[in-house]
Design a protein that fits this description.
Elements lengths: L1 H18 L2 H6 L11 E2 L7 E9 L6 E7 L3 E11 L5 E5 L3 E3 L4 E4 L4 E8 L8 E8 L3 E8 L3
Antiparallel strand pairs: 1-2, 2-7, 2-8, 3-6, 3-9, 4-5, 4-8, 9-10
The structure holds copper (II) ion.
Copper (II) ion (CU) binds next to strand 8.
Protein name: Copper chaperone PCu(A)C
InterPro entries: LpqE-like (IPR007410), Lxx211020-like (IPR058248), PCuAC_sf (IPR036182)
Organism: Gracilimonas sediminicola
């Protein structure tokens, strides 16, 4: 029981570091919100990373992103970053993302992002990886991304 609580605490700390890296958020201030550098961040095996990219709904009806998978991560979630009342950055899981016809889902640093947890391999800059998005309308969509800081 005690061991479980300790492990949860550790993973919680690692998560908050990956999701709410204060330095990274500050570095990102100069990046215009309309410019998204598509990438997966480098990380050690066993660690946590994030994916940023733009998905456009090319269907003529609204679609819903229901889940995301990656064969290099044990757990993948869609997260939303937000600022708390006292100015801290937090994040929460977003179970579904609805995208209207012709519209984009913009996964970016400091906003909606794909959280990759429990990496089963090291992600090194220069590598190329793929995430699998599952939509209720478009079905499975594979997105290839470079690993970049
Ligand atoms: Cu996150």
């Amino acid at each position: 029981m005690r061991k479980t609580a300790f492990l949860l605490l550790i993973s919680g700390l690692m998560l908050s570091e990956a999701c709410t890296n204060q330095k990274a958020e500050k570095e990102n201030v100069n990046e215009k919100p309309d410019v998204i550098r598509e990438r997966v961040r480098p990380a050690a095996s066993g660690g946590t990373s994030a994916a940023y990219f733009v998905y456009t709904n090319s269907l003529d009806k609204a679609d819903t992103l229901r889940s995301v998978e990656a064969d290099f991560a044990d757990m993948v979630q869609v997260h939303e970053s937000y600022e708390t009342e006292d100015g801290m950055m937090g994040m929460r899981e977003q179970k579904e993302v609805v995208v209207q016809p012709g519209q984009e889902i913009r996964f970016r640093q400091g906003g909606l992002h794909i959280m990759l947890m429990g990496l089963n391999q090291e992600l090194q800059a220069g590598d190329s990886v793929a995430v699998k998005l599952k939509f209720s309308g478009a079905g499975e969509v594979v997105k290839k991304l470079p690993v970049q800081p």
